Amino acid sequence: MGAKTERNGRNDLPIADSQMDNIFLRWWGCGAFDARFGDINIAFDPYLFNQNLADAEPIYDYIFISHEHFDHCHPVTLQKLCRGERFKKLFVNLGCMTPALPIAEKYGDAAFERDLPITKHVPADKVQVLYPKHLNESQGTSRAFQGSDTLDLGDIQVETIESGENQTPNLPTNGYLITHIKKNVSILHTGDLHEPYPALINLQGKVDFLIHMKLGLGAGLAPRLIELIELIQPHYVIPTHYRTDRKSDPIPVGHWPPNVTDEMAFIESMRTIIGDRTHLLPFTAGIEYEVEMPEKQVIWKWEWFNTWDVPPWRE
Ligand SMILES: [Fe+2]
Predict the structure, then answer these.
(1) CA 107 to chain centre
(2) CA of 85 relative to ligand 1 center, distance in Å
(3) Pick from 131, 207, 126: nearest CA to 162
(4) Residue 72 and residue 46: Cα distance in Å, rounded?
(5) How many angstroms does the Cα of residue 12 sit away from the middle of ligand 1?
(6) If DSSP codes are grouped into helix, strand and coil, which group holds residue 156?
(7) How many domains would you assign to the chain?
(8) How far away, in angstroms, is 1 Cα from ligand 1 center?
(9) How far is the CA of 204 from the centre of ligand 1 (A)?
(10) To pair with 44 at 20 to 30 A between CA atoms, which of 70, 187, 217, 308?
(11) What domain range is 286 assigned to?
(12) DSSP string of 160-217?
């Protein structure tokens, strides 16, 4: 890219090229999502299989886990990613360290003794528990957690929200708002959030890309999605946490989450609910998207290559 000549209005310093380089976003299947900002790479709930797992490289500085269920805290994937020179820290909710016991009884098929605490699989000095800063009062009104302040990691800031699927009120699950300060871009991964709650208004206007999981989908639940969007007012909503039968989808048949019968209809049903409150930004699982900065627009191109040797319509 050529040199940028724009100036930062606040202190009139030139904006460095690297600050305005494009970023890359990817839905990795299920609730897994990653972002490459250039100077720093992050992943949420990584969950890989087969060749993707075999090929996985430890390219992330920080990894964020929403909760201790197997499809979000996946030891086999984390063993591949939580190592090497670049990797710094795995941030988890409390349940990844001290799950409800006995695990088999409390979680059924959603979490396993073999996986938890996650320090069985990732060195303890690389794991840090975070607690939600913004709490859902329907989980209890007298809770306050230490270790819930906004975390400053230099290039990025981490602000936590309470997610859903809490095993108990004292085992809160996490959503993470990650803001890359210099690039002025932010991603909110909600975890398996089921319902909106008033404290989410604290995120209003702070979210560029909201990674959506399951909230407000299903008969009679649309008002929840509308409320979430009106509270947070994200620029974009990226639907995830469903599985397709597309070749690029990293989650093999027979694994969580379930397919939708018709992906386009699914997306359009969300668009109908959301209306003009925000922009729905459907991603194809397993595909990395380049996002043009500072406009924050996904780049797409024609693929000008032939899938034939002789045009089949010639004859
Ligand atoms: Fe999930």
Answers:
(1) 23
(2) 30
(3) 131
(4) 7
(5) 45
(6) strand
(7) 1
(8) 39
(9) 24
(10) 217
(11) 20-298
(12) EEE-S--SSTTS--EEEEEEETTTTEEEEE--S--S--GGGGGGTT--SEEEE-STT-
Give how far the C-alpha of residue 128 lies from the chain's centroid of Cα atoms, to the nearest Å: 18
**Weakest-pLDDT range from 30-34, 96-100, 131-135, 243-247:** 243-247
**280 alpha carbon to ligand 1 midpoint, in Å?**
20
Cα–ligand 1 centroid distance for 70 (angstroms): 8
Q: What is the CATH number of the domain that holds 215?
A: 3.60.15.10
Q: Give 72's contacts (C-beta < 8 A, 6+ positions apart).
A: 30, 31, 45, 47, 65, 66, 191, 192
Spacing, Cα 203 to ligand 1 middle (Å): 22
For residue 287, how many other CB atoms are within 10 A of its CB? Answer: 13
**What gap in Å lies between CA 282 and CA 238, rounded to an integer?**
6
Distance 90 CA to ligand 1 centre (A): 18
Could you tell me if residue 192 is inside a domain?
Answer: yes
Distance from residue 109's CA to the centre of ligand 1 (Å): 12
290 Cα: distance to centroid of ligand 1 (angstroms): 26
Distance from the alpha carbon of residue 165 to the mean position of ligand 1, in angstroms: 9
Tell me whether residue 12 is in a domain: no
CA of 132 to the centre of ligand 1 (A): 18
The amino acid that residue 242 corresponds to is: Y
Condensed to tens digits (0 to 9), the pLDDT of residues 206-262 reads 999 999 999 999 899 999 999 999 999 999 999 999 998 888 889 998 899 988 889
Please give the distance, rounded to the nearest whole angstrom, from the Cα atom of residue 112 to the centre of ligand 1.
Answer: 15
Q: What is the pLDDT of residues 67-110, one digit of tens each?
A: 999 999 999 999 999 999 999 999 999 999 999 999 999 999 99
> Cis peptide before 257, with omega less than 30 degrees from 0?
yes
Domain-located, residue 306: no
Q: Which two tokens stand for residue 8?
A: 């930062």
| Joined tokens for residue 283 | 């991603």
Ligand 1 centre distance from Cα of residue 202 (Å): 24
